[in-house]
Each structure stands twice: as C-alpha cells, then as structure tokens.
C-alpha cells in the first residue's frame, strides 16, 4: 500500500474532492457504500426507462406499414374534392409521406 494519497478522477468536481479530503475514514467508507448503492439505483432506473421506451416502440398500429416509423402521424390532403390520408413523418430536415388511402374508403 502506497503512502501517497490517491489521485482523484479528473472528472470529479473540486468541491467534492476537497470535502472527501476533509472526511474521516469511517465517513469515507459510508460515502463509498452510499455512492455504490446510488449508482446501482440510477443504473436500474435507466434500464427500466429504456425498457419502457422499447415497449412503446414495439407497439405499432396494425395498419402501419413496415417502412413507416412509429412516430408517423396521419395527414389528410384534399385533391380534386377527394380527401386522402397519408402517413407523414420527419426524417432529418425532410418531411416524408406514404399514401394510406381515402378518408372514407366506402366513398
């Protein structure tokens, strides 16, 4: 074991390093235990949130074509007094559309 104090991580804020340097060994062990438990908790929360986001992505409307993203919305356009529905979504700076069908297919 070295007699030199450890070097703190470069990304650790100075005020935290200073506080830890002024803390007794027992409290440092408590801080380490708490920090580890907190890190595990935050990682678990992030995984749960990611899992919930993934479930939302997997819920596709039945009539949504495979090449249309889930975030697409339906837009109605009127052409020659007829109304048509289009799937519409943003892809970068472009707005893309895919024909869905007439607004009232019975007409």
TrEMBL record:
Q: Which Pfam families match?
A: DUF6788 (PF20586)
Q: Where is this region: Disordered?
A: 41-68
Q: Which domain of life is it from?
A: Archaea
Q: Which residues form the DUF6788 domain?
A: 54-106
| UniProt biased composition (Basic and acidic residues) | 41-50
InterPro entries, A to Z: DUF6788 (IPR046738)
Q: Please identify the protein, giving its name as recorded.
A: DUF6788 domain-containing protein
What is the species listed in this Swiss-Prot or TrEMBL entry?
Answer: Natranaeroarchaeum aerophilus
